[in-house]
Task: inverse folding
Protein backbone atom coordinates (compact mmCIF):
# COMPACT_ATOMS: atom_id res chain seq x y z
CA UNK A 1 0.00 0.00 0.00
CA UNK A 2 1.16 3.54 -0.71
CA UNK A 3 -0.02 6.61 1.18
CA UNK A 4 -1.07 9.90 -0.36
CA UNK A 5 -2.07 13.29 1.05
CA UNK A 6 -4.25 15.87 -0.67
CA UNK A 7 -3.60 19.59 -0.22
CA UNK A 8 -6.82 21.54 -0.79
CA UNK A 9 -10.31 19.98 -0.64
CA UNK A 10 -11.92 22.21 -3.25
CA UNK A 11 -13.35 21.36 -6.68
CA UNK A 12 -10.33 19.35 -7.86
CA UNK A 13 -9.12 17.94 -4.50
CA UNK A 14 -12.56 16.53 -3.64
CA UNK A 15 -12.75 15.16 -7.20
CA UNK A 16 -9.46 13.28 -6.67
CA UNK A 17 -10.89 11.66 -3.51
CA UNK A 18 -13.95 10.63 -5.51
CA UNK A 19 -11.97 9.23 -8.47
CA UNK A 20 -9.69 7.20 -6.16
CA UNK A 21 -12.73 5.90 -4.23
CA UNK A 22 -15.02 5.14 -7.21
CA UNK A 23 -12.35 3.37 -9.27
CA UNK A 24 -10.43 1.89 -6.34
CA UNK A 25 -10.34 -1.73 -7.58
CA UNK A 26 -9.21 -0.86 -11.08
CA UNK A 27 -6.67 1.69 -9.81
CA UNK A 28 -5.20 -0.86 -7.38
CA UNK A 29 -4.76 -3.35 -10.23
CA UNK A 30 -3.15 -0.80 -12.56
CA UNK A 31 -0.91 0.70 -9.88
CA UNK A 32 0.02 -2.74 -8.55
CA UNK A 33 -0.65 -1.48 -5.04
CA UNK A 34 -3.47 0.09 -3.07
CA UNK A 35 -3.43 3.90 -2.86
CA UNK A 36 -4.68 5.20 0.47
CA UNK A 37 -5.51 8.86 1.06
CA UNK A 38 -4.16 9.34 4.59
CA UNK A 39 -4.58 13.10 4.94
CA UNK A 40 -6.55 15.97 3.46
CA UNK A 41 -5.19 19.43 4.24
CA UNK A 42 -7.59 22.36 4.21
CA UNK A 43 -8.16 25.48 6.31
CA UNK A 44 -11.86 24.64 6.51
CA UNK A 45 -13.66 21.89 8.43
CA UNK A 46 -16.01 19.49 6.65
CA UNK A 47 -18.34 18.08 9.33
CA UNK A 48 -20.06 14.89 8.17
CA UNK A 49 -17.87 14.56 5.06
CA UNK A 50 -16.08 11.19 4.56
CA UNK A 51 -12.72 13.00 4.82
CA UNK A 52 -13.55 14.52 8.23
CA UNK A 53 -11.47 11.92 10.10
CA UNK A 54 -8.35 12.50 7.98
CA UNK A 55 -8.60 16.29 7.78
CA UNK A 56 -5.57 18.25 9.01
CA UNK A 57 -4.89 21.99 9.13
CA UNK A 58 -1.11 21.84 9.49
CA UNK A 59 1.06 20.86 6.48
CA UNK A 60 3.89 19.76 8.82
CA UNK A 61 1.82 16.73 9.84
CA UNK A 62 2.02 15.52 6.22
CA UNK A 63 5.62 16.59 5.71
CA UNK A 64 6.83 14.77 8.82
CA UNK A 65 5.03 11.51 8.02
CA UNK A 66 7.59 9.33 6.18
CA UNK A 67 4.84 6.98 5.00
CA UNK A 68 3.31 9.67 2.79
CA UNK A 69 5.01 9.12 -0.59
CA UNK A 70 2.62 11.12 -2.80
CA UNK A 71 1.38 14.66 -2.21
CA UNK A 72 -1.50 15.92 -4.37
CA UNK A 73 -1.43 19.70 -4.61
CA UNK A 74 -4.85 20.98 -5.65
CA UNK A 75 -4.76 24.25 -3.72
CA UNK A 76 -4.27 26.58 -6.68
CA UNK A 77 -2.38 29.88 -6.55
CA UNK A 78 1.34 30.29 -6.04
CA UNK A 79 1.51 30.67 -2.27
CA UNK A 80 1.62 28.61 -0.13
CA UNK A 81 1.41 25.91 -2.83
CA UNK A 82 5.01 26.67 -3.92
CA UNK A 83 6.42 26.36 -0.38
CA UNK A 84 4.53 23.13 0.33
CA UNK A 85 5.48 21.57 -3.02
CA UNK A 86 9.16 22.42 -2.62
CA UNK A 87 9.25 21.11 0.93
CA UNK A 88 7.51 17.88 -0.11
CA UNK A 89 9.92 17.28 -3.03
CA UNK A 90 12.97 18.07 -0.88
CA UNK A 91 11.66 15.55 1.65
CA UNK A 92 11.67 12.92 -1.14
CA UNK A 93 7.91 12.85 -1.72
CA UNK A 94 6.30 12.78 -5.18
CA UNK A 95 3.98 15.67 -6.03
CA UNK A 96 1.06 15.67 -8.50
CA UNK A 97 -0.69 18.93 -9.28
CA UNK A 98 -3.40 20.69 -11.28
CA UNK A 99 -1.90 24.10 -10.46
CA UNK A 100 -1.09 25.87 -13.74
CA UNK A 101 0.03 29.13 -12.06
CA UNK A 102 2.63 27.27 -10.03
CA UNK A 103 3.86 25.04 -12.88
CA UNK A 104 4.17 28.02 -15.25
CA UNK A 105 6.05 30.11 -12.68
CA UNK A 106 8.19 27.63 -10.74
CA UNK A 107 7.98 24.42 -12.78
CA UNK A 108 11.63 24.53 -13.88
CA UNK A 109 12.96 24.63 -10.31
CA UNK A 110 10.45 22.07 -9.02
CA UNK A 111 11.25 19.64 -11.86
CA UNK A 112 14.97 19.96 -11.09
CA UNK A 113 14.42 19.20 -7.41
CA UNK A 114 12.28 16.18 -8.35
CA UNK A 115 15.07 14.86 -10.57
CA UNK A 116 17.73 15.41 -7.91
CA UNK A 117 15.61 13.61 -5.32
CA UNK A 118 14.62 10.83 -7.75
CA UNK A 119 10.93 11.51 -7.31
CA UNK A 120 8.32 13.07 -9.61
CA UNK A 121 6.60 16.40 -10.11
CA UNK A 122 3.68 15.58 -12.43
CA UNK A 123 1.21 18.15 -13.76
CA UNK A 124 -1.04 16.50 -16.35
CA UNK A 125 -4.12 18.34 -15.06
CA UNK A 126 -2.54 21.79 -15.40
CA UNK A 127 -3.38 22.01 -19.13
CA UNK A 128 -6.57 20.90 -20.83
CA UNK A 129 -8.20 19.46 -17.66
CA UNK A 130 -8.86 15.78 -18.36
CA UNK A 131 -7.18 15.76 -21.80
CA UNK A 132 -3.94 13.73 -21.44
CA UNK A 133 -1.81 16.07 -23.55
CA UNK A 134 1.26 16.28 -21.30
CA UNK A 135 1.66 12.51 -21.27
CA UNK A 136 1.25 12.41 -25.05
CA UNK A 137 3.98 15.04 -25.50
CA UNK A 138 6.28 13.42 -22.91
CA UNK A 139 5.82 9.80 -23.90
CA UNK A 140 3.99 9.20 -27.16
CA UNK A 141 5.63 11.88 -29.33
CA UNK A 142 9.24 11.56 -28.20
CA UNK A 143 10.34 10.53 -31.72
CA UNK A 144 8.96 13.70 -33.30
CA UNK A 145 10.20 17.26 -33.52
CA UNK A 146 7.09 19.19 -32.45
CA UNK A 147 6.68 22.24 -34.65
CA UNK A 148 3.33 23.61 -33.52
CA UNK A 149 0.97 23.44 -30.57
CA UNK A 150 -2.33 25.31 -30.91
CA UNK A 151 -5.14 24.92 -28.45
CA UNK A 152 -8.47 26.07 -27.17
CA UNK A 153 -7.24 25.85 -23.62
CA UNK A 154 -9.81 27.82 -21.64
CA UNK A 155 -13.30 26.42 -21.20
CA UNK A 156 -14.85 29.61 -19.82
CA UNK A 157 -13.93 31.79 -22.80
CA UNK A 158 -14.87 29.06 -25.26
CA UNK A 159 -18.29 28.85 -23.59
CA UNK A 160 -18.72 32.64 -23.78
CA UNK A 161 -17.72 32.82 -27.46
CA UNK A 162 -19.97 29.83 -28.28
CA UNK A 163 -22.96 31.53 -26.59
CA UNK A 164 -22.25 34.81 -28.39
CA UNK A 165 -22.19 32.87 -31.67
CA UNK A 166 -25.35 30.84 -30.98
CA UNK A 167 -27.43 33.61 -29.41
CA UNK A 168 -25.98 36.78 -30.93
CA UNK A 169 -25.48 38.09 -27.38
CA UNK A 170 -22.96 40.66 -26.19
CA UNK A 171 -19.85 39.63 -24.23
CA UNK A 172 -21.18 40.92 -20.87
CA UNK A 173 -24.44 38.90 -21.14
CA UNK A 174 -22.61 35.71 -22.16
CA UNK A 175 -20.14 36.20 -19.29
CA UNK A 176 -23.02 36.55 -16.82
CA UNK A 177 -24.55 33.33 -18.16
CA UNK A 178 -21.19 31.56 -17.75
CA UNK A 179 -20.98 32.83 -14.16
CA UNK A 180 -24.58 31.77 -13.39
CA UNK A 181 -23.77 28.26 -14.67
CA UNK A 182 -20.68 28.12 -12.46
CA UNK A 183 -18.18 27.96 -15.35
CA UNK A 184 -16.62 31.39 -14.90
CA UNK A 185 -15.13 32.56 -11.63
CA UNK A 186 -16.75 35.53 -9.86
CA UNK A 187 -13.52 37.32 -10.77
CA UNK A 188 -13.15 36.06 -14.32
CA UNK A 189 -10.13 38.19 -15.24
CA UNK A 190 -7.61 35.35 -15.61
CA UNK A 191 -9.95 33.59 -18.04
CA UNK A 192 -11.33 36.47 -20.12
CA UNK A 193 -8.05 38.39 -20.35
CA UNK A 194 -6.30 35.26 -21.64
CA UNK A 195 -3.87 34.84 -18.70
CA UNK A 196 -5.06 31.28 -17.95
CA UNK A 197 -4.59 30.18 -21.59
CA UNK A 198 -1.23 31.98 -21.62
CA UNK A 199 0.10 29.92 -18.69
CA UNK A 200 -1.19 26.73 -20.29
CA UNK A 201 0.43 27.35 -23.69
CA UNK A 202 3.70 28.26 -21.93
CA UNK A 203 3.62 24.91 -20.09
CA UNK A 204 2.70 22.93 -23.22
CA UNK A 205 5.38 24.69 -25.28
CA UNK A 206 8.01 24.01 -22.61
CA UNK A 207 7.14 20.30 -22.69
CA UNK A 208 6.82 20.18 -26.50
CA UNK A 209 10.10 21.98 -27.26
CA UNK A 210 12.03 20.75 -24.20
CA UNK A 211 13.14 24.17 -22.89
CA UNK A 212 11.46 26.61 -20.52
CA UNK A 213 9.04 29.05 -22.16
CA UNK A 214 8.36 31.94 -19.79
CA UNK A 215 4.64 32.73 -19.77
CA UNK A 216 5.47 36.41 -19.16
CA UNK A 217 6.97 36.54 -22.68
CA UNK A 218 3.83 35.24 -24.41
CA UNK A 219 1.89 38.01 -26.17
CA UNK A 220 -1.60 37.78 -24.67
CA UNK A 221 -4.93 39.33 -25.61
CA UNK A 222 -8.28 38.16 -24.19
CA UNK A 223 -11.87 38.23 -25.43
CA UNK A 224 -13.32 41.18 -23.47
CA UNK A 225 -13.12 43.34 -26.61
CA UNK A 226 -15.16 40.94 -28.77
CA UNK A 227 -18.67 42.24 -29.54
CA UNK A 228 -21.84 40.92 -31.13
CA UNK A 229 -20.89 42.88 -34.30
CA UNK A 230 -17.55 41.01 -34.52
CA UNK A 231 -19.51 37.76 -34.37
CA UNK A 232 -21.77 38.98 -37.21
CA UNK A 233 -18.72 39.59 -39.39
CA UNK A 234 -17.33 36.16 -38.47
CA UNK A 235 -20.61 34.55 -39.53
CA UNK A 236 -20.64 36.52 -42.80
CA UNK A 237 -17.18 35.07 -43.50
CA UNK A 238 -18.29 31.52 -42.61
CA UNK A 239 -16.00 31.66 -39.57
CA UNK A 240 -16.10 31.42 -35.76
CA UNK A 241 -14.07 33.44 -33.28
CA UNK A 242 -11.99 31.31 -30.89
CA UNK A 243 -9.46 32.22 -28.23
CA UNK A 244 -6.43 30.38 -29.59
CA UNK A 245 -3.26 29.75 -27.60
CA UNK A 246 -0.55 28.89 -30.05
CA UNK A 247 3.18 28.37 -30.39
CA UNK A 248 5.36 27.44 -33.36
CA UNK A 249 8.97 26.35 -33.61
CA UNK A 250 10.63 27.17 -36.92
CA UNK A 251 14.23 27.49 -38.07
CA UNK A 252 13.95 31.23 -37.31
CA UNK A 253 12.90 30.64 -33.69
CA UNK A 254 9.88 30.17 -31.48
CA UNK A 255 6.71 32.29 -31.45
CA UNK A 256 3.88 32.08 -28.93
CA UNK A 257 0.65 34.03 -28.70
CA UNK A 258 -2.82 34.01 -27.13
CA UNK A 259 -5.52 35.99 -28.97
CA UNK A 260 -8.99 35.75 -30.51
CA UNK A 261 -8.81 34.44 -34.08
CA UNK A 262 -11.45 33.88 -36.78
CA UNK A 263 -11.22 30.30 -38.01
CA UNK A 264 -13.14 28.47 -40.73
CA UNK A 265 -14.50 24.90 -40.86
CA UNK A 266 -11.25 23.67 -42.44
CA UNK A 267 -9.59 24.19 -39.04
CA UNK A 268 -10.02 21.16 -36.73
CA UNK A 269 -10.58 23.63 -33.87
CA UNK A 270 -13.72 25.13 -35.53
CA UNK A 271 -15.99 22.42 -34.11
CA UNK A 272 -14.69 22.75 -30.53
CA UNK A 273 -17.53 24.51 -28.75
CA UNK A 274 -18.97 25.26 -25.29
CA UNK A 275 -16.67 24.40 -22.38
CA UNK A 276 -14.67 21.85 -24.38
CA UNK A 277 -10.93 22.19 -24.95
CA UNK A 278 -8.77 20.77 -27.72
CA UNK A 279 -5.06 20.73 -28.48
CA UNK A 280 -3.74 20.47 -32.02
CA UNK A 281 -0.13 19.31 -32.43
CA UNK A 282 2.02 19.18 -35.54
CA UNK A 283 5.09 16.95 -35.52
CA UNK A 284 7.67 16.73 -38.31
CA UNK A 285 7.06 12.99 -38.70
CA UNK A 286 3.57 12.63 -37.24
CA UNK A 287 1.98 15.45 -39.21
CA UNK A 288 -1.22 16.65 -37.53
CA UNK A 289 -2.96 15.24 -34.45
CA UNK A 290 -5.59 16.65 -32.12
CA UNK A 291 -6.84 15.76 -28.65
CA UNK A 292 -10.32 16.89 -27.62
CA UNK A 293 -12.24 16.68 -24.34
CA UNK A 294 -13.33 18.15 -21.04
CA UNK A 295 -10.89 20.93 -20.27
CA UNK A 296 -12.22 21.78 -16.84
CA UNK A 297 -14.53 20.54 -14.10
CA UNK A 298 -14.05 18.51 -10.96
CA UNK A 299 -13.99 14.90 -12.20
CA UNK A 300 -12.28 15.38 -15.60
CA UNK A 301 -9.47 17.37 -13.95
CA UNK A 302 -9.32 14.92 -11.03
CA UNK A 303 -9.08 12.03 -13.50
CA UNK A 304 -5.83 13.53 -14.85
CA UNK A 305 -4.48 14.16 -11.34
CA UNK A 306 -5.37 10.61 -10.25
CA UNK A 307 -3.57 9.17 -13.31
CA UNK A 308 -0.45 11.04 -12.17
CA UNK A 309 -0.95 9.58 -8.67
CA UNK A 310 -1.07 6.09 -10.23
CA UNK A 311 2.16 6.84 -12.16
CA UNK A 312 3.84 7.87 -8.89
CA UNK A 313 2.54 4.76 -7.13
CA UNK A 314 4.15 2.69 -9.91
CA UNK A 315 7.46 4.63 -9.67
CA UNK A 316 7.62 6.01 -6.11
CA UNK A 317 11.41 6.31 -6.02
CA UNK A 318 12.26 6.69 -9.68
CA UNK A 319 12.20 9.92 -11.65
CA UNK A 320 10.13 9.52 -14.83
CA UNK A 321 11.80 11.50 -17.61
CA UNK A 322 9.74 14.40 -18.95
CA UNK A 323 9.15 18.10 -18.52
CA UNK A 324 11.85 20.43 -19.82
CA UNK A 325 15.44 21.57 -19.38
CA UNK A 326 16.27 24.63 -17.29
CA UNK A 327 17.53 26.60 -20.33
CA UNK A 328 15.08 29.23 -21.44
CA UNK A 329 13.66 29.20 -24.96
CA UNK A 330 13.72 32.86 -25.98
CA UNK A 331 10.66 33.83 -27.96
CA UNK A 332 10.87 35.90 -31.13
CA UNK A 333 9.44 39.41 -30.64
CA UNK A 334 5.65 39.20 -31.11
CA UNK A 335 5.81 42.16 -33.53
CA UNK A 336 7.85 40.11 -36.01
CA UNK A 337 5.06 37.58 -36.56
CA UNK A 338 2.79 38.01 -39.58
CA UNK A 339 -1.01 37.93 -39.53
CA UNK A 340 -4.02 38.76 -41.66
CA UNK A 341 -6.69 40.94 -40.06
CA UNK A 342 -10.33 41.86 -40.31
CA UNK A 343 -10.40 45.62 -39.66
CA UNK A 344 -13.65 47.41 -38.74
CA UNK A 345 -13.93 51.17 -39.23
CA UNK A 346 -16.67 53.78 -39.27
CA UNK A 347 -18.07 55.05 -42.57
CA UNK A 348 -18.92 53.54 -45.94
CA UNK A 349 -16.68 50.99 -47.70
CA UNK A 350 -16.21 53.04 -50.87
CA UNK A 351 -15.16 56.10 -48.78
CA UNK A 352 -12.67 54.20 -46.65
CA UNK A 353 -11.20 51.74 -49.18
CA UNK A 354 -8.46 54.02 -50.63
CA UNK A 355 -7.14 54.88 -47.17
CA UNK A 356 -7.27 51.26 -45.99
CA UNK A 357 -5.44 50.14 -49.15
CA UNK A 358 -2.81 52.83 -48.66
CA UNK A 359 -2.23 51.60 -45.10
CA UNK A 360 -2.47 47.85 -45.43
CA UNK A 361 -1.88 47.11 -49.10
CA UNK A 362 -4.48 44.60 -50.09
CA UNK A 363 -7.94 45.18 -48.64
CA UNK A 364 -11.09 43.26 -49.43
CA UNK A 365 -14.40 44.82 -48.26
CA UNK A 366 -16.61 42.55 -46.12
CA UNK A 367 -20.31 43.12 -45.45
CA UNK A 368 -22.35 41.54 -42.69
CA UNK A 369 -26.17 41.42 -42.59
CA UNK A 370 -27.62 43.80 -39.98
CA UNK A 371 -24.45 45.87 -39.50
CA UNK A 372 -24.86 49.54 -40.41
CA UNK A 373 -22.86 52.76 -40.00
CA UNK A 374 -19.50 51.04 -40.37
CA UNK A 375 -17.58 48.83 -42.74
CA UNK A 376 -14.90 46.15 -42.60
CA UNK A 377 -11.97 44.96 -44.69
CA UNK A 378 -9.80 41.87 -44.81
CA UNK A 379 -6.15 42.88 -45.10
CA UNK A 380 -3.35 40.95 -46.72
CA UNK A 381 -0.66 39.33 -44.55
CA UNK A 382 1.03 42.08 -42.54
CA UNK A 383 3.81 42.09 -39.97
CA UNK A 384 2.22 42.53 -36.52
CA UNK A 385 4.37 45.53 -35.54
CA UNK A 386 3.71 47.29 -38.85
CA UNK A 387 -0.02 46.64 -38.53
CA UNK A 388 -0.16 47.88 -34.92
CA UNK A 389 1.67 51.09 -35.85
CA UNK A 390 -0.82 51.88 -38.61
CA UNK A 391 -3.96 50.71 -36.80
CA UNK A 392 -3.37 52.97 -33.80
CA UNK A 393 -3.71 56.07 -36.00
CA UNK A 394 -6.64 54.78 -38.05
CA UNK A 395 -9.56 57.23 -37.72
CA UNK A 396 -12.84 55.63 -36.59
CA UNK A 397 -11.20 52.24 -35.90
CA UNK A 398 -13.66 49.93 -34.12
CA UNK A 399 -11.85 46.61 -33.80
CA UNK A 400 -9.42 44.29 -35.52
CA UNK A 401 -9.33 40.51 -35.30
CA UNK A 402 -6.78 38.12 -36.75
CA UNK A 403 -8.07 35.64 -39.32
CA UNK A 404 -6.57 32.22 -39.97
CA UNK A 405 -6.81 31.78 -43.73
N1 LIG B 1 -10.84 28.49 -15.59
C1 LIG B 1 -10.31 27.41 -16.33
C2 LIG B 1 -11.09 27.26 -17.65
C3 LIG B 1 -10.40 26.15 -15.51
O1 LIG B 1 -12.14 27.90 -17.80
O2 LIG B 1 -10.64 26.55 -18.53
C4 LIG B 1 -9.56 25.00 -16.00
O3 LIG B 1 -8.19 25.29 -16.00
Result:
Amino acid sequence: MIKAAILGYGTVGSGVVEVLRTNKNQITKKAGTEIEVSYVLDLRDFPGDPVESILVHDFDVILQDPDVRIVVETMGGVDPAYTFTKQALLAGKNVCTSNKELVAQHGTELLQIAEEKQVNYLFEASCGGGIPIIRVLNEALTADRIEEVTGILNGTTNYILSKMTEEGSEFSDALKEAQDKGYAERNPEADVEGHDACRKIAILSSVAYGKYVDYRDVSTEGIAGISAVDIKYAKALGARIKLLASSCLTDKGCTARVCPVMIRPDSPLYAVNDVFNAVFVHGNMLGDAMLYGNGAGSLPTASAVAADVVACAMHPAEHIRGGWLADQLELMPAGEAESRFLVRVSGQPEERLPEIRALFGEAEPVTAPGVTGECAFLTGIVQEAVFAGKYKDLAGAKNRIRVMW
